[in-house]
Design goal:
By secondary structure, the chain is an alpha/beta fold. It has 2 domains: about 60 residues, no CATH class; about 180 residues, Rossmann fold (3-Layer(aba) Sandwich). A 7-stranded mixed β-sheet has the order 3-2-1-4-5-7-6. The chain is flat, with a radius of gyration of 20 Å.
């Protein structure tokens, strides 16, 4: 099934009514106050999350089982990096299936051999991330591997203290466009703000120790957790220099 929100929501009158109510509230406030940009952002986020919850339930109940017949490898937060021989899961139409890992996922215990994600886990709140890692541990078969590519936040701060600002010059134009600041006024702190916060999309900053501890809390044994190197066959080359990689193997039960 294509990840078509509209078709799913047409089957759910309650969801359509709620979305219409939000649109009406937003229109009323805009007529009254003219400028309501912060409220518009909240309404947009609320509508997206409501639609996401609805489509997640539909796919989780009706489509996920069929996807798992195709592969025992999962790619969470796939974005446009669609991997062959994986079930690619994300909140967009490029993925094989639209699911929101903040909610329960109907994947049987001990049934998945490999889980991968790159620049995904930092988009989850701390509580959501811990739930996700526990889900990964639950669904992995004994001996199965969880591989995570995580933004190398530590490198951002290290380069700042070393006064190595070369990365700023490489993406000065991008930072200028995003922050609406002339290139001549872009500084290294703009790069840090972009890397850490990603314009509101990043929810947590991690180094190896932090993710190591969260993996232990999730059920993995510390001797089965390690920092690893870039792998050509699976990791994105464009992210190589801004990423550290961690693998956790589920112990034999």
């Amino acid at each position: 099934m294509k990840n078509d929100m509209t078709q799913v929501h047409k089957q759910d009158a309650d969801i359509l009514n709620i979305l219409d109510m939000i649109d009406n509230i937003e229109a009323t406030l805009k007529n009254k106050y003219q400028s309501i940009e912060p409220i518009e952002k909240l309404c947009s986020s609320l509508k997206f999350n409501i639609k996401t919850r609805s489509l997640h339930k539909y796919n989780n109940d009706n489509q996920l089982h069929n996807c798992l017949k195709e592969s025992k490898k999962i790619h969470f937060g796939s974005g446009n990096d669609i991997k062959l021989d994986f079930v690619n899961i994300d909140l967009n139409n490029s993925a094989n299936i639209f699911l929101d890992v903040r909610y329960d996922i109907n994947i049987p215990d001990n049934s998945i051999e490999y889980i991968y994600s790159s620049h995904f886990v930092e988009h989850l709140e701390h509580k959501e991330l811990l739930k996700h890692l526990k889900d990964c541990f639950r669904i992995l078969e004994p001996g199965g591997t969880l591989r995570l590519g995580i933004p190398f936040f530590e490198k951002l701060f290290t380069n700042y203290y070393k006064k190595d600002f070369s990365r700023v010059n490489e993406i000065k134009s991008l930072l200028s466009d995003k922050f609406e600041i002339p290139e001549s006024l872009i500084c290294y702190m703009d790069l840090i703000n972009r890397g850490v916060y990603e314009f509101g999309e990043h929810k947590i900053v991690m180094d190896y120790i932090k993710i190591h501890n969260l993996l232990i809390l999730s059920g993995f044994h510390k001797e089965n957790i390690s920092e690893t190197d870039f792998i050509d066959d699976i990791d994105m080359l464009s992210r190589k220099n801004q990423t550290f990689y961690v693998e956790a193997i589920k112990h034999q039960l």
